[in-house]
């Protein structure tokens, strides 16, 4: 039995870390990982994710799958060369022996995943959602993360539970349909493919 541990970006408070883990757990269950779920740790910001990953990677046992799931922050030239992207953008050095499959990206941010599933947004927000204010579904992963986030906030501004990071973002994450994400997002296709191979 492979031991798998995924360090996730998200959750600044203890309560939000619980919600973050729950949101990703529900999404991964719907993607077919029930019964072989990796252990999920919500670490807060990107730097904390990398620190926790490095510690766990140094202490790993043979056969363990240790990975981190982070926002790419910017469009990625080559999704399979994740450490190259992190080194160029964040000056993060790949630990000796680590592979590109140990970095899973939300490209460019978690909000990209959220705005992709229009049905989940409609069901969550109801008629007050201004859907035409959301970014178009074409080339979503090449859009600036601030643009994606701001358009989601703007589209939900008239809703009682208007979008913001934290509790509300993780509630939405749990409602997303993996099939819809795979249709539009190469980064999610890659996450799904790697986890299916590793777990």
UniProtKB/TrEMBL annotation:
Q: Which Pfam families match?
A: DUF4276
Domain of life of the native organism: Bacteria
InterPro entries reported for this sequence:
DUF4276 (IPR025455)
Know the name of this protein?
Answer: DUF4276 family protein
Q: Which organism is it from?
A: Candidatus Accumulibacter contiguus
